[in-house]
Every structure is written in C-alpha cells, then in structure tokens.
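If you are new to this repository, start here. Below is one unmodified record pulled from the training split, so you can see the exact layout before writing a loader.
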Amino acid sequence: MIRNGIPADTLDKFIDYAKQNKAKPLTYATVGIDSIYHLMGDALGARLGLTFLHVPYKGAAPALQGLAGGEVDFAILPYQSSFEAMQQQGRLKLLSSFSKALPAPLKHLPLISQSHVVPDFEYMISGGYFVRQGTPAERVAVLRKAIGEALTKPEVRAKLEAEGRTVVQRIESQQQANKYFDQYQGRVTQLIRSVGRKANAA
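And here is the target side for that same chain:
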C-alpha cells in the first residue's frame, strides 16, 4: 500500500515513481525490525536496485495509521479488511498482494503476477497451530483431528478467507505437518539470505 498523494495506481507505476526519486529514498512501514515484512521490503529494494528506508512500528495497527497519516510512503502489512475501507476514504492506495492467488472474497485485489516488472516477486506467510516439544502424540492427534474438522465447516473457512487466509487441505499426519513446515522454512531461509542476513537452523 502507498500513501495518498503518490501519483500511482498500480505497483509498476509506483516502482517508476520510486526510480524517479532515487535521490530521496522512500520510506516504508512494517510491524517491526527483521519481521518477514521488513525482509520483503529489503528484498524488493534489492531486486529493483533501490534503497528504501525501513520504519518499524510496534504492530500492524500503528503502521497502518502511520501510512494513512502520511508518515511513510508505503507499507507492507498483513491483510486487514480495514485496508479497503481506508482506500475508499482516500487515506491510502492498495496496489498489490505479493500472492499469485487469493481466496474468493479477495479476488478483486491486484496480484503480484499482474506486475510487468516483478511478476515473480511472490511471498506468502504460512501459519499453523503449534504445541510444546514433548507433548504426547495422542494429544497432538486429538488436537489435529479437531482442528481439521473445524476447517471443513463452511462458516469457519468463510471467516478465515474473508481475512485473507487461504486454508490448506486437511493435514492427517505429523509427517505431512513436518513436510509443510520444512517447505515454508526453506522459503523463509531463502528470503533471509537474499537480503544478506544469516539464517540459523531451527
């Protein structure tokens, strides 16, 4: 998202604007230092050959208010339904999701694949339910079964999708869960290394 006042209504036009203003690096808000969103901003700058000045906030709500108030030029934040209301009020512009696919309620939002400059700049943040190391396997199995059943309910899925979450297929075993997490950890490690940070093993 970008602040109102920047003459751009697409990500590519915003990138052009940033390149034309190289002498004064643009500022961007995230939820905090070394968050995934911070790393995305640094990775985007590196990809474009631009320097962006990171402005960390203590959470998404303050960062969003900072953007709407014109304190920063753009922001990279997890989706909230309030984004679109604020855009309608003329307080910010929502330019793109870093996803190539979105759940049905968000199909109207621009995708990164629509960019002609960085169509492959795809980053998604995965989430899940975690328990303490050493939790008995039978308890984990009960919890996994309950969560899986809840996620099959249309009203639960609809609420999650309206918040911008894509619900994955039901995970039946610890092996599946481990594989999914390892794949995500690999993507995050690649992102960390792409901006010159060190990725420590979990």
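Two things worth knowing about this chain: Residues 2-114 form a domain with the D-Maltodextrin-Binding Protein; domain 2 fold (CATH 3.40.190.10). The chain has a mean pLDDT of 91.
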